[in-house]
Amino acid sequence: MYVGRFLVVGPDGGAYRVSSRSFPNREISVREDALTVGPTDDAPETDNPYVAYNCVRVVETPTGETAAFGNGSHVDPIAEKLELGYPARDALATSLLALDYEKDDYDTPRIAATVGDAGEAFVGTVREDALLVERVEEPTLVATYEMDTPEAFEFDASDAETAARSAYDLEFEHAVCAAGVARSEAGDGFETAIVNDD
Amino acid sequence: MYVGRFLVVGPDGGAYRVSSRSFPNREISVREDALTVGPTDDAPETDNPYVAYNCVRVVETPTGETAAFGNGSHVDPIAEKLELGYPARDALATSLLALDYEKDDYDTPRIAATVGDAGEAFVGTVREDALLVERVEEPTLVATYEMDTPEAFEFDASDAETAARSAYDLEFEHAVCAAGVARSEAGDGFETAIVNDD
Amino acid sequence: MYVGRFLVVGPDGGAYRVSSRSFPNREISVREDALTVGPTDDAPETDNPYVAYNCVRVVETPTGETAAFGNGSHVDPIAEKLELGYPARDALATSLLALDYEKDDYDTPRIAATVGDAGEAFVGTVREDALLVERVEEPTLVATYEMDTPEAFEFDASDAETAARSAYDLEFEHAVCAAGVARSEAGDGFETAIVNDD
Amino acid sequence: MYVGRFLVVGPDGGAYRVSSRSFPNREISVREDALTVGPTDDAPETDNPYVAYNCVRVVETPTGETAAFGNGSHVDPIAEKLELGYPARDALATSLLALDYEKDDYDTPRIAATVGDAGEAFVGTVREDALLVERVEEPTLVATYEMDTPEAFEFDASDAETAARSAYDLEFEHAVCAAGVARSEAGDGFETAIVNDD
Fold this sequence. Notes:
Four copies of one chain form a homotetramer.
Chain A: E1 6-9, E2 13-19, E3 26-31, E4 34-39, E5 53-61, E6 64-70, H1 75-84, H2 88-99, E7 110-116, E8 121-127, E9 130-136, E10 140-143, E11 151-152, H3 160-169, E12 175-183, E13 190-196
Antiparallel strand pairs in A: 1-2, 1-10, 2-12, 3-4, 4-5, 5-6, 6-7, 7-8, 8-9, 10-11, 12-13
């Protein structure tokens, strides 16, 4: 099954995976404070505005640290609203509603999630016909196609490496790259990990 | 089962019912352009800000007519955003998020729905842990307690009278009053109906 | 000159005054955590939805204490957004835009202000043709009519009593009642004061 | 004087100009339905997220045609909200507040404007300390620095060519490129024009 880009978020961590038929020549790299999806060196040029973006950001909030991740340019305003003090629910809802689904041939939804350091995790998506943001108590998946409403999904996000690898290896078609995020065992913030196509 | 206030919205109409343990002395009356929930003449005085509000409004939008209904003061900004031209999804999401759940002892959710004259219906709710707005293709119920996530629910909203009566008669406890709304058979807008406690 | 309801907000305090031709029989009273505008005992009944509301609220935020005040029901969501952690700019903008100007015969603007305990004050208004929210460094007035864009205005808000009395005594017509708010001299939060018609 | 990027919007048209000390190697080109700011062929590579964006878009709304322009990626959600039916005031306010000022070394404001085909024009900006959106009745300028509050400004936007050229030639320092937009004389939508560095 092809579900497009997807994420899984559980109480303590999560993962985001790029799956793509149209733009497979992409990879995730580490920038200051962010993991970034972008074209590989050998990718054909495109002016599609949806192929490069920060997919994971870890930010300081007034009350702790929060990781935000998702499938597009909305990850930045979500992270920035968290830094300003918005609760996760409101940072997700505001940013998803403002940027809305992608204006491509498929009305591709935007998806996003947050994990806070007090154990609160949220998932969100905006579709042409819906805006859904909710707290999750167990691992939850949402994808851009087919599985486009958040649903419980068995997943191991106990550490970032495992989360990224598990997401990359899931049976869904056209895996390109994946990122994992998890609260660090030492309890002081978040660790991240990347899996790029070999 | 006590589910508190609830609404059902289907493609062509819907109903809203007040169920209440704390403030049963209420009724729905007709005001210009709105159905209004308020205390009966013999109700004890209260300064609770959540007992009186417009529960149904029918408004002209730039592209037709839409009915909006719900369990509190958010029905007015939803109706007004529809008049300004906001799509139903956005009118619901913006108003629910801004007014948020009721700051009472139960963090009671706000619930709302819209029916457009082109056959589009939406349901929405805001809870302490979620903001959920989505298009519905079949009758869908959402309540303030227990059934606080929208779910499919068999319901006859073919005319306003039937919708109001059906909602009032549902087995959920502590019925106080109900309003129904349906696209008129003549196809020119909406009709409404009221059932108050006998 | 009749400027309708107005407020003045300076770096350390402010005041809100009800001026009214249509509903002069009103007073401000103290409720738990709020100052509330409402009809006097001898006021004629009205179903105008804009005459009774919390005009001042002092709330705990994640980083301190903030006072919010204004001319209508938007003061509650502004206060609640501040409690959730929204910065003042965003709490004002979100709530004013969602509730919008009053849908009366004059398209009366909503006005509001905040004073934080770190010395930050903001003013905001939403009109049919504008949404204006900005930090103020000196006493600033905004009214519902005539002076409906925030402007610098000499005013003494050094303590709550003085602020309320000064606002009540200003030459603008049809004074009904006024509330003052100021950071307490002890530096631990805010004090409030009320002046009602004699 | 260096005011950075700026725009002028009058009742019937307007212009946007890129002024830049850091990224002068840029030009405006025509894409389907948009004018786009991007690097010239000889520009050094950068991963600054704020140098390439659609600066002008003309969209169909439910009630006519509207031109939107501004200094960054917020022009897209503004245009898309207009297409959905949001009034200009709300499309500007929602998108500016969600994307907020640029998170660079200068907290550079986002600026934007709209011109509708019924003669309504709006200007907006979001700064670290303000969100300002208002209808304009006469040509009005707002810039990212120094002149960062909208102010009346004599300007000829009677046709797109003149508007673009006038903006480019204004005495403000470090002109890079400019775009103009005006209601077409035939009254059927908008014309646009571009001036790039020679």
